[in-house]
Amino acid sequence: MNxxxxxxxxxxxxxxAECREIVNDFIADLEKLSNKYGGSSFYDFKENNAKxxxxxxxxxxxxxxxxxxxxxxxxxxxxxxxxxxxxxxxKLELI
Length: 95
What we know:
It is built from two helices and two strands. It is mainly α. It has a two-stranded antiparallel ribbon with strand order 1-2.
């Protein structure tokens, strides 16, 4: 059973790294934009443009990075794990 847990843990680490790479690419573009044009270090995440839209603010690129990484993992992590697990089993010809 420990082997199964180790495999799942390794897959989750790879999934996290893949999501982190996506976020890092976006952050690199955001930093280019900021370096070229300036702007605030505070970032508002808004549901939409309505006056009563839900909003929260983060301070700095590192917090934006954390929010985006968590958001992507929460939204896609389980599906990615299922896909990668099936892919691994197919490679091992177990199913």
